[in-house]
Amino acid sequence: MKLVDRMKDEELGTAILYNFTKGYGKPVPLELYDVVLPLLYHDFIREHVLTYTSLQECIYQCIQNEKHFKQHLLEKIEDDKTMTSKALGVAMIQHILKFEIVDTVMCGVALPTDILDLNEAIWLGKLFQDVSLEDFMTLLKQEDTHIVVLQSASVGKDVDLSKIASLGQVTMYEDTKPSEIKGRILGADIVITNKNEMTKEVLEGLKHLKLICLFATGTNNVDLEYCRDHGIKVANVKDYSTKTVAQHTLALLMHLVEKNVAYDHFVKSKAYCQSQCFSYFDDVFHDVASMTWGIVGLGHIGRQVAGIAKAMGAKVQYYSTSGQNATSDYQQVDFETLLKTSDIISIHAPLNEKTHYLFNEEALRKMKPTAYLINVGRGGIIEEKALVKVLNEGHLAGVGLDVFEHEPLLEDDVLYSIQDMNKVIFTPHIAWGSIEARQRCVDEVYKNILAFLKGEERNIVNNE
Description:
The protein has 464 residues and is α/β, with parallel strands linked by helices. It is 38% helix and 13% strand. β13 (372-375), α18 and β14 form a beta-alpha-beta unit.
């Protein structure tokens, strides 16, 4: 049943608070009840709350609809506290709600009752499930923060950015050319980007800029030293795509190992129809379980891939590019040993001084001629000119690249000169980008900004 009037008495308030608790689905911190009635007594929220999938989106639309929404709602929260207390008292007396301490916090719990469902209240409870009162009040009390998103399209047009849009005065650009960056972030308090180069030249003179957030884990495109010296915090996102990248690593490898393109063509071309045998084995493939899988970079993603490799029966060994990631779960070897003894090598390392052109011609030639090389780390880790040279000489069984020295590739990119394209598979830097991972990435950036606005540090990478 929908709410059809706004009669502010304890009976209606009790029904609203009960249904909110029902929608919340777990014990409700007592202080959270103070915002429920002011929200549902607000005409715009009551009429539209059922159309929103996040509380942040709902609040953002209210701000757009009503100039002084934040101020008015904060006033009503104070004004309606007495009514809320009376309604909670009635709910307790009528055995509609009970109150108990959960993790040192007094909470309300819904009891069985014949009160009719109030759809708006139930839905509001659902919207609050992952939003604390502190987070909600931060959204209301903060001064309008000027946020500029330079590359919204880098996380896809199918993700929900409404949480970020609720954090202040937000300007979004699908993409931004290098020459456009500085002009677009003049006056910005917070900048969100992915791969834009945030150099000293770009950042100089930006007196308002306090935070740079990345839709990414890697920070090599930001001058961290300049930011640190000028009080600009830089926040990245972590672990949002670990399983996704590991999944793509396996997909690239199996595409090469299983020779599925050739076999698929054999069937679809009707060559199979002319065959005298039910099976066709002209393109040899091997068990991964018979191979040694070498991993370059044993961070979160590298460990996830190692787990997959082990589950498939491969012998796993690794080389730590930083020297900091060590585990007794797998055999650690030096780089030369990894190159000479691995049947599969997958790269999961960041691009830095130690890893730039780590796989140069000398390194590539040390690999087994029958080995497979997969790169889902960063493009500059492999010297692509050298890679093309050794491939065209017949060295390596297959190569899978999701990252490149130039992104996007150049029209005359050296990779297009590979003579046998059946030995390679290229994907356009998508290993991280399942819809679920991209939404997690956006949500993590939102949490980083919200923490910053509350005076907290979350995923800051350039502290002293």
